[in-house]
Amino acid sequence: MDQILVSIAYSNSNVKLAGTHTGLAVGEDGPSAQMIVDLAYTRAMPNMIVIQPADWEEAVQATKALSKYCVWEINLLIW
Fold it and tell me: Alpha-carbon distance 52 to 38, whole Å?
């Protein structure tokens, strides 16, 4: 997280990060995979916007909205 803070947030770099298994709803992985601290830490960083979709449909909508602000093509691989 410190690398994100120093290299991206402080310098206000145009970087988009996408993570999985953050927040409260992580599905089958259970409570040991809940990384609530990651959300709190990134929300407190300067120049950062955090989006936490609640389900698959919101994740698709968030990805589409994010793609409007990307200079390069987004490739989404779903296993």
Answer: 11
Q: How many CB atoms lie within 10 A of CB 24?
A: 11
* Size of the chain in residues: 79
Q: Can you give the pTM of this predicted structure?
A: 0.60
* C-alpha pair distances (Å), 1 with each of 17, 42, 54: 12, 8, 23
State the pLDDT at residue 79: 46
Backbone φ and ψ of 60, nearest 5°: -65, -45
**CA geometry: angle 40, 41, 43, nearest 5 deg:** 65
The tens digit of pLDDT for each residue in 13-59 reads 877 777 766 656 566 766 666 667 777 888 888 988 888 787 889 88
Distance between CA 38 and CA 26 in Å, rounded?
Answer: 14
Neighbours of 62 (CB within 10 A): 14
